[in-house]
Amino acid sequence: MIRTLDDLDAEGAAVGVRVDINSPVAPDGTLDDDSRLRAHVETLDELAARGARVAVLAHQGRPGGDDFTSLADHAERLSALLDAPVEYVDATFSAAARERVRSLADGSVLVLENTRFYSEEVMQFPPAEAASTHLVAGLAPVLDAYVNDAFAAAHRSQPSIVGFPEHLPGYAGRVMERELDALGDIASTPTPRVYCLGGAKVDDSIGVASTVLESGLADVVLTAGVVGNAFLHATGVDLGPESTRVLTDRAGDRLAQAEELLDTYGDRLHVPLDVAVERDGERVEVSVEDLPVPEPAMDVGSATVAAYGDVLANAGTGILNGPAGVFEEERFAVGTRGLFEGATAADYTIVGGGDTASAIRRLGLSGFDHVSTGGGAALAMLTGESLPAVEALR
Ligand SMILES: Nc1ncnc2c1ncn2[C@@H]1O[C@H](COP(=O)(O)OP(=O)(O)O)[C@@H](O)[C@H]1O
Ligand SMILES: O=C(OP(=O)(O)O)[C@H](O)COP(=O)(O)O
Description:
The protein is an alpha/beta fold.
């Protein structure tokens, strides 16, 4: 049984709220997309309106990445989005941070600095060890309660995700609650169940395909994006040097597993029939029989969209993760648009993923039963795994 905000006595309480506002960042360091911030408005405004003193904990990027930035801009955006007053401090658990939390007024929000500026936060620990990390042990004494709304990071056993409930009463925020309701019992959703795996996390998606095909959770797996190119390659098709380089880089050492999956589940595991490339500045579709080509495959073609659309139209549940192509460029958004529009014909449609959510917003797509804020976390649930964040709240 997980407690929710309905069980929390918020008035005057100092509440640490872990959110996932990890977002695309522009080259000048400002936020490129605020979908994930918008998702947490309900939880944060509700707590503030009920008189809590809200300390926001969040990460942005990973050490070494271009998007590993401070949360100053996130705080400014939150200030525009929330009804409550929002402050920011460039510290997470130091004396300065603790003092700011102690002096927070009822009904106001303080954004603490990027948790991953501290090395322990990029490691994973069992909850009892996470509880004695510097971040958790330092901050817990100034908090009365902990709320986890960071569904998109719920598959990470990191200190700010699993450590606090060892010290404090823990509650699920509204995002977490909704996600667990929608994704918590995938095995009882209508069948046939069709998973469509796109995007660029080829190694993860090969693992997902393997799990859902073997467990029977998936009746059919459709593949698109770089994932589709990788499975196409695994059937023995030569896509050309550029596509092969990208898919090989992204597959890690899992390409052999893709071949095994095709041998075992060939009839339930579908690969693209055509791809789209850029030639003389135009989108050109190339059917699989006409491969290889020198240009990289940037999208699936219209024959694939039509064939996958037929499968999805007959699905009880359609589960889509990852765009079908480089949707950031309009001419390669065609496959993503077609496939996601087609998926709404399934009786019940779930879509998930950080870039997927951006694509849905950018392309103005709608009609899904559930749009998950999580990519990896949603896929973990959709393969029947339990999530460390959820276990910690239990
Ligand atoms: N054929 C392709 N070639 C190169 N990149 C692709 C291709 N198809 C999709 N992508 C890229 O995949 C990225 C999203 O993948 P991923 O991070 O796995 O999705 P999500 O965050 O939704 O789980 C996008 O930036 C998109 O441009
Ligand atoms: O963006 C996230 O995950 P996602 O790309 O799977 O949606 C989360 O913020 C987790 O980030 P991480 O994968 O760096 O631990």
